[in-house]
Write a structure and sequence with these properties.
With about 375 residues, the protein is α/β, with parallel strands linked by helices. It has 15 helices and 16 strands. The protein has two domains: about 260 residues, Queuine tRNA-ribosyltransferase-like (TIM Barrel, Alpha-Beta Barrel), CATH 3.20.20.105; about 100 residues, no CATH class. The termini are far apart. The structure holds zinc ion.
């Protein structure tokens, strides 16, 4: 059965779109934000807590799961969803990004990447086939091709070589995935690379679209380039994406980046920021970031955000959270993560409502003013 994506509405003022992704019986409203559970856990949250934030699609990481707990364990137990008691939808990235950001002493050839594990130095060889095989065992609903992500300042020559490799690997990933009978409930997405070069991005997008993937992602952005650069690349790439398939911008979750990318027609996002910043004492509100550590919150009886329906805001004051942080209590990370993930889902609900009412441009303008005090 093909991956079904229903497009309900496209904004008359921009390319923002409203849709539903039907993933193995789970309906996911788009634009969607996916909380990140790198090592098969959204940090400091139980699956029930994650579900209560109205998150239905989360992300786990292939590279980390291959290293720990390892494929033998996941094979025996019947996949990562069963292993981690997650009953909704899941996506795994290909591990490409981590091979380039974490691994030690890697050697890249057209066949794959030889590298040493960042944990114990163990030698591993990632090939397109191996990465798909691993994702079949891990068992997420949405899986990704193996790709090569380059830095934002990579030369044209190197960016082209990496893009050619990404296309070659995408073909190998798709061939292997399509020939595997046991993977019919897993959908493989293609990743558009090409660094900061419009012609490379365009060529990569067109080539992958010809290969007919059930959904597409844009990789290699939010890696240190400027907002304008990201915006220009995205705007150009989106011209070449089919309208009837979901588009995923990998690793992007900053409020302004989400607003800008939705405007260009992106449907899916993921980022570690809500949970990472939560643990560092940064709570998101519609009016910007609140630093709970600030001594002004020592006796502050107000909630992180009045009107937030999360468990944290329903029950606890900023003063209590400030105390938990000072006392280095585990509950601090839990309560802050609940709020920040719920904030992201409230943001996405508001974004979807504004597209539905054809008011997205006004919504973006208001949100940029409220959150960053920036006029757009
Ligand atoms: Zn809250």
């Amino acid at each position: 059965m093909p991956l079904k994506f229903n497009l309900h509405k496209t904004s008359s003022q921009s390319k923002a779109r409203l849709g539903t992704l039907h993933i193995n019986g789970i309906d996911v409203a788009t634009p969607v934000f996916m909380p990140v559970g790198t090592k098969a856990t959204v940090k400091a949250m139980t699956p029930t807590m994650v579900e209560e934030t109205q998150s239905k699609l989360i992300l786990a990481n292939t590279y980390h799961l291959i290293l720990r707990p390892g494929l033998e364990v996941l094979k025996q137990i019947g996949g990562v969803k069963k292993f981690s008691a997650w009953n909704n939808a899941m996506l795994t990235d290909s591990g490409g990004f981590q091979v380039f950001s974490l691994a030690k002493l890697r050697k890249i050839t057209d066949k794959g990447v030889m590298f040493n594990s960042h944990i114990d130095g163990q030698k591993l060889f990632f090939t397109p086939k191996m990465v798909i095989e691993a994702q079949h065992i891990i068992g997420a609903d949405l899986i990704m091709c193996f790709d090569e992500c380059v830095t934002h300042d990579a030369t044209y020559q190197y960016s082209k070589e990496a893009m050619d490799r990404t296309i070659k690997w995408a073909k190998e990933c798709k061939e292997y995935h399509d020939s595997n009978e046991n993977s019919e409930h897993q959908y493989l997405g293609g990743i558009v690379q090409g660094a900061m070069f419009d012609d490379l991005r365009e060529y990569c997008a067109k080539t992958l679209v010809d290969m007919d993937f059930p959904f597409y992602s844009i990789g290699g952005l939010s890696v240190g380039e400027s907002d304008t650069q990201m915006h220009d690349i995205l705007s150009n790439v989106m011209e070449h994406m089919p309208t009837n398939k979901a588009r995923y911008l990998m690793g992007v979750g900053e409020v302004r980046d989400i607003l800008n990318a939705v405007m260009e027609g992106i449907d899916m996002f993921d980022c570690v920021m809500p949970t990472r910043n939560a643990r560092n004492g940064e709570a998101f509100t519609m009016a910007g970031t609140v630093r709970i550590r600030n001594s002004k919150h020592k006796t502050d009886e107000s909630r992180i955000e009045e009107g937030c329906d999360c468990y944290t805001c329903q029950n606890f004051s900023k003063a209590y959270l400030h105390h938990l942080d000072k006392a280095k209590e585990i509950l601090f990370s839990i309560l802050m993560s609940i709020h920040n993930v719920r904030f992201m889902q409230r943001l996405m609900t508001d974004i979807r409502k504004s597209i539905e009412e054809d008011l997205f441009i006004e919504y973006r303008k208001n949100m940029m003013k409220r959150f960053y005090d920036i006029d757009v």
